[in-house]
Structures
1.
Amino acid sequence: MKKIFILSLIAGCLCAACEQQTPRYLDTTVSIDNRVEDLLKRMTLAEKIGQLNQYSDDVSDSYPMLRNDYYVQEIKEGKVGSLLNITGGTKRVREYQNLAMQSRLKIPLLIGLDVVHGYKTTFPTPLAEAASWDLDAIKLSARIAAVEASATGVNWTFAPMVDICRDPRWGRIMEGAGEDPYLASLIAVARVQGFQGDKADAVDGIMACAKHFAAYGAALAGRDYNSVDMSLRTLWDTYLPPFKAACEANVATFMNSFNDLNGIPATGSRYLQRDILKGQWKFQGFVVSDWGSIGEMITHGYAKNSKDASAKAILAGNDMDMESYGYIRFLDTLVTDDKIVDITVVDDAVRRVLRKKFEIGLFDDPYRYCDEEREKAALNNPEHAKAARSMAAKSIVLLKNDNNLLPLSKSTKTVGFIGPLVKEHKQNLGAWSIVDVFMSDVNCEEFIVSQWDGVRQRMDADSKLLYAKGCEIEGDDTSGFAEAIAVARQSDVVVLSIGESKLMTGEARSRSDISLPGVQEELVKAICATGKPVVVLINTGRPLIFNWVADNVPAILYTWWLGSQAGNAIADVLFGDVNPSAKLPLTFPRSVGQIPLYYNHFNTGRPGATDTDYVFKSGYMDVRTSPRFAFGHGLSYTDFQYADLKLSKKTMNSSEQITVSLNVTNTGKYAGEEVVQLYLRDRIGSVVRPVKELKDFKKIHLQAGETKLVEFVITNDKLCFYNDLLQYGSEAGEFDVMIGSSSEDIRLGDAFELK
Ligand code: NOJ
């Protein structure tokens, strides 16, 4: 008897008298760890499994119907830990939390959503933002997205996507930060910090999710969901760094991925989830599966059935089941009858989920994200639109500007604005738009500044802006060409807005041919044939191949998808109110046949092929090996001169550092910003090292005529890599220092030795 009494004390007293007091897990003076343990002890196995179960709302007819009584009942019984895709803002989130509050232990729900580039205020797509190389601006974009999303009841975003990608055929390239592990890691951290805010329980923050773990961006042939086959060294050196950076920035959650990595589906990979993430990196948050990815292990040929897949997933470290319905059906038997899954494994997963719910304050107030006043204010904040406009202008890359055709004068008498994207509203949002999918009440014609409206509002009153569509984005209809040519003939300058449609990038939007769709290139040719000066705007989520345009059109702005302020931002740059400063965060190929093409490649034993001299060199008979536009490329309306490179010393040991300094002068007429890039090359290694690797950059603002000193500090960590045994460290030897305005435009160089 005495023994039982003591046991019940240890286990947390559950007698009727004590239950009338506030349970310990609801006592805010108790530490989170103790609250989690107290709650865990009170939970039945079914309730524990419920915390690992996530359903989607009925965002579209093909999704499960949560309004279905059966699911409502499950929430009331504590069998659902999280919901995603809830439309309807605070009102509906409140309804769902109400249901959860009817459950025995009153465990609130996590409310997840893909808040990828803004909530209502739509920012440029993530790859576009990456082109800004402006970490503060990127962080602010995520911050504003979180302020808006959290005000509508959402407390968890499935972002940032931190997948490195070297293949523009892959439609999801638009969701990441490009090809470079260093730049992408910094951007991953900025986004995590922006989404989550400064404190875990910030009511205007939302939990972030680093996805897709791992190597999803290396899908073979750029085909979405395809297998990934890569060396572990490439995985560690190139694909894992942004995930590690997100983990170190305390990202709350990770999402695994659809792909198999070297034959093992990521969802079932112990190596990725248990050994690396929860083991070596000591990740304290939880891992959610991708949509149905536990179930897909059956199709992969890695699991017999849903039960087997569920066992494999949870044993591998996948904590929450998004939409596979496996955990909810089979975990119970797997633990109690089959004894394949130990209860400690379930407990660990549940602990991780509960800890996050406590950390974000949900137990203290399940409705803390459901304040209708805050919702109204956050979704109509003019400061958000200003930030979106500034971010959009920072994302536009000036690829080419022959004879300084840009900026245009606002008093140009007649501008012809031609192309299928000129008058579009929704297209500017790109994929993963909340407004497009979830907010049918938003009047997009008013809310989104079309390119036409942006430009028209910026021109002088007595200047004329003429319009012709010319053609559709896709299809072979050229019947609009004549009108477009007539408009061009009447114009002093023509601006052509062409590209993809918004859903040609995004999930499952791989393309084998990434040239301009339809007859758009023919339209450009026809307009150029009028002899008028032409500026082309290229709207898309990915790098496209547009060789004729690149060779023949004097000015090209790569505008990506710029979001709800697209038109204003484009006008800002076209007319020089903003001097473009963006740089490509990835390599643009000349031909699909060059893919994968990336700047930080190895030298090979036979480098140096040119267009004519390829024989017995690593090149092609039919295309140059070099990119069309290099990683880091992006022009300005002004010019920058780099000079006076100095290294504080020429040798260092691993505990020392070298300061690299140089002067950058704005030699042109306009104030502007330059991204000064530091690349290093480890000349000889125990494994071959890339021809150059970005190791630092500084984005500086210079008035016309101004000179600024730029300094970089080289420390040992910038020289480390994973060797053949996957050991991380530096190796003594010589290193080249390259300072450039892009990865190809190296302006200054020197070398040092690591002793
Ligand atoms: C599938 C996508 O791969 C993932 O990125 C997304 O978060 C989920 N669907 C939920 O929408």
Note: The two ends are 70 Å apart (CA to CA).
2.
Amino acid sequence: MRHLIDPLDFTLEETERLLTLADRIADDPAAYQEAARHKKLATLFYEPSTRTRLSFEAAMLNLGGSVLGFASADSSSAAKGESVADTIRVISCYADIAAMRHPKEGAPLRAARYSRIPLINAGDGGHQHPTQTLTDLMTIRRRMGRLDGLTIGLCGDLKFGRTVHSLIMSLARCEGMRFVLISPEELRVPDYIITETIEPRGISYQEVRSLEGAMPELDILYMTRVQRERFFNEEDYVRLKDSYILTAEKMKLAKPDMAVLHPLPRVNEIALSVDDDPRAAYFEQVQNGVYVRMALIITLLGLEGAVC
Ligand code: CP
């Protein structure tokens, strides 16, 4: 039995195999409509979500399975003080696979130690979000035709943005990668990402403050929201929230085939005028999120053989 808690739980080869399966599903979803028949997915969400929870549910329903779960800590026995360890032991009696989002970093890892079913980290605090990374990788690969030799700009809240941490960790395994880290000083990517992931691999990177200055060289621009819920005081959030706003005017500085990604939700960091630009890939990401989660459920449940 395997879990997906950290993006490195799958090797690069396994990740690429999963993306290839997701591509095949995208090309012919009907071929997979019975793949997880009689299987149940539990969604254990202790923190708000629209995309991750509902795309997991859509993925399982698309595969012919069923879903159960809760959408907030308040509507579960966590409100009475139940631990994630006890909760996953209980859920292991009800479901075949589970996805957990939790505000505490490391909570899904702790739960996995007690789980008798495959457990997927659907986002833990400001730490990791490995299934968003699979979604991002699928979108990059479909747009650019490859995952290597790319210059990737990550812009916004690189400190608290868990999708940024997971994406860097995963892409750092690809050849010829270059990162441009665009953030205010206070929202720099955590030092451990640089010292444990980027520098040991000799990956080229720059930390810069100007989005406009970085734009012309980027193959991918990964915009992020400033994560209000992780700030200790509102004053700091208000000061930093509009540090970067991507507009149609700024898009004129970018390569003609650059792709703009964003894990969403968007607040103010991408103007609505960018949505009609063919380089805007963030709603495509949402659709890919369903296919990649279908592929992940098939993989973790060992159902590849159930599909011709
Ligand atoms: N991208 C993402 O994790 O969105 P949700 O918070 O809506 O799940």
Note: The mean pLDDT is 96.
